[in-house]
User: Which sequence fits this backbone?
């Protein structure tokens, strides 16, 4: 089993989530938003995982995320291959890269 820098991964995910706006990922902004970027539940839905699981990863608790889950998060956060390398270094692993060219902008 590989060692994870959970705090580094969590910090990276929070920064990325806060930097993205709903319009950046095709979601409506809505009238009442208290957060400047995406909500955790929006990232979870975009990543095809439960909100609870994503929140635990972002809080540095819970199980170690698999490479498949990291690839799903990368796809949900619209990361490029270069940006994907950042959390990979935090994990000391290389997650599977999504094959869809629309994700790898």
Assistant:
């Amino acid at each position: 089993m590989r060692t994870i820098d959970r705090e580094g991964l969590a910090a990276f995910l929070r920064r990325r989530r806060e930097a993205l706006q709903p319009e950046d990922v095709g979601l409506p902004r809505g009238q009442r938003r208290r957060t400047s970027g995406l909500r955790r539940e929006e990232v979870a839905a975009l990543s095809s995982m439960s909100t609870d699981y994503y929140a635990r990863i972002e809080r540095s608790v819970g199980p170690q995320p698999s490479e498949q889950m990291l690839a799903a998060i990368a796809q949900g956060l619209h990361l490029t291959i270069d940006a994907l390398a950042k959390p990979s270094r935090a994990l000391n692993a290389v997650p599977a890269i999504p094959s869809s060219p629309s994700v790898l902008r």
Remarks:
- The chain has one domain: 6-91.
